[in-house]
Structure to design on (293 residues):
């Protein structure tokens, strides 16, 4: 049996500079620009031909979930407030809305795709006949879309009989490993050389939110203000959509987010500047790495 060992450095757009290191025979890495970031696919050489199908799926979902395209699923929901159940947009929006509502409720509103706090996902109705949004509401699912797309790629790989696929979408990492050998994931320290932590990932997903690449760009939907008390927040969850949304929620909540995410069964690790500008790290008891409270 072949053994694959992969080390990944998590960040926001960090894979652009080849921070994915591959060891062991049989694996290849291919990088593409998707979702306004670099996306790495790590897969067995014999499955390289399946990349075209995976890329087509990713680009299709990216188009459906775009906040900026008027003809996207999100654009149509924002414009008309109604998506019928027979529409191809229905299952995609249903899934991201359900995740958004779960994290919104679990985080006390620290994550909410309502645009700049002017609406709430909790007001969207997912019905058998369709999806109805409140009149005048605008929604941006960017905080969960990337993770959702990673999940669908992992699902497609499993359905097509692949033995291994790891997707690193600018720091949102999902893994399918039929042999359950696992990969080591290093959470990058944006202000130093040593990683914040190392995690043996055998399933599930890890996602990271932070301000060190793009500056303060994350909004607290409860106040409508930008936040930036933490350097970064990383979350471990059963799937990448949950990890993605919770990473944003924990970043908004700050240190309190460790306890809040733990109550929902989510692992979390945060980095912040302590005395003298030194990076300090804390993690909750659900975090699968080496760090703890």
């Amino acid at each position: 049996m072949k053994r694959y060992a992969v080390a990944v450095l998590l960040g926001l757009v960090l894979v652009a500079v080849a921070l994915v290191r591959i060891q062991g025979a049989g694996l290849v890495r291919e990088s593409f620009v998707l979702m306004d970031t670099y996306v790495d696919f790590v897969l067995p050489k014999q499955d390289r031909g399946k990349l075209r199908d995976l890329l087509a799926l990713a680009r299709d979902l990216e188009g459906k979930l775009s906040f900026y395209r008027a003809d996207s699923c999100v654009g149509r929901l924002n414009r008309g407030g109604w998506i019928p159940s027979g529409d191809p947009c229905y299952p995609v929006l249903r899934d991201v809305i359900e995740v958004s509502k779960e994290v919104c409720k679990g985080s006390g509103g620290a994550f909410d795709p309502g645009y700049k706090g002017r609406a709430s996902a909790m007001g969207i109705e997912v019905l058998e006949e369709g999806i109805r949004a409140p009149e005048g509401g605008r929604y941006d699912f960017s905080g969960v879309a990337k993770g959702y797309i990673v999940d669908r790629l992992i699902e497609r790989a499993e359905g097509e009989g692949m033995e291994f696929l790891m997707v690193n979408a600018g720091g949102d990492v999902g893994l399918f490993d039929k042999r359950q050998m696992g990969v080591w994931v290093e959470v990058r320290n944006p202000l130093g050389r040593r990683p914040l932590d190392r995690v043996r990932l055998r399933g599930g997903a890890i996602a990271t939110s932070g301000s060190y690449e793009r500056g303060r760009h994350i909004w607290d939907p409860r106040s409508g203000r930008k936040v930036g008390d933490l350097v970064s927040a990383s979350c471990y969850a059963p799937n990448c959509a949950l990890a993605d949304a919770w990473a944003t929620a924990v970043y908004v909540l700050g240190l309190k987010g460790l306890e809040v995410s733990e109550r929902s069964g989510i692992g979390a690790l945060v980095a912040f500047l302590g005395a003298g500008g030194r990076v300090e790290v804390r993690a909750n008891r659900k975090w699968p790495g080496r760090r703890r409270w």
Observations:
- Residues 1-5, 10-24 have pLDDT under 50 and may be disordered.
- The longest strand covers residues 27-34.
- Residues 59-143 form one domain.
